[in-house]
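U., I forgot to send this yesterday:
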Amino acid sequence: MTGPERRGFVTGGTWCLDYNLSLAEWPAVETASRILSNQRQGGGAACNFGVGLRRLAPEIPVSTITLCGEDDDGNFLRGVAQDHGIDTAQFHVEPGLTTHRVMAFTGLDTGSRTHLFEAESADRLTPDHFDFAESEAFMLHLGLPGTHAVLDAPWQDDENGWVTILRKARAAGLRTNLELMTIGEEELRMLVLPCLPHLDYLVVNDHEIGAITGIETNRGGATSHDAVLKAARRALEIGAMTLVVVHFPQGAIAVERDDETAFQASAEVPATAVVGSNGAGDAFTAGFFCGLHRGRPLAECLKFAHSAAAASLRAIDTFSAIATIEECLALADEYGWRAPLEIVGSDAQSPFAQYDTKD
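Result:
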């Protein structure tokens, strides 16, 4: 695998202000619980990927496209971008809007997370905010469907605004990747399936690939590695992607359109090192594309990804524990790696044949 001729990334979509709140345990209904800590930090797919990538590989240029309000939270987010050397020329500001903010609760007893959000500025983001005419970036990293009211709805002749943005980016010479979040399976399918013909890459978790393809990837409370492989192959049939990557707690699988496949178990992170899992998926994606941008082999890209995700677990926020990729790799080696994945793999079926690009 060789590196791209174009350089760098554009991150588009969700920038939100995360209020990271820790609780001793998740409270029962009709009870009160003390908040143990409250940390204010940037969040959202465009923020987490962009900042994470800059921390992993400061030589890779990153710009961003988003919308926030002219308020303290918006000023804070622009400061996060600027502090990390991210180009904010298209970090749009609209007076009178409330910047997208998230109450991100973590129960310290189990590490479980619950996010409650207000998305006024995210809901006002439209495809018209996105201009790729001058971009020389390699790829657009876009997200999050289900969080942006205008983009989730039909836009002109397209099924939704996400499709419009992806089409614009590819027409300008950028490759595309779409970041997802945990929403209902039916809503996820409705929003994402129309986007697949306009994607070059898809990096998702086991739940998301199962929702997209209609293949059950969780059996008996555990991820089925064979089912994940089936679902990844099925996604390639449905969409235009050249590469699908699926991650889950035990490891990750990458499948290219020519069926070249790589498997990599995850780092064995000790429980005592885990502070929070917010943003671990974003860190994984940033690590993977750091490796891809550097022209590393597919299996090594997965190792980059797991190392970045492992490092991110050391903080309650989404990116402050991410270091350079070399430091993350050293940390993962220190933790040790899980046993290699056992995968058989076979043909897959899906109820979404109308999206199939095969004859």
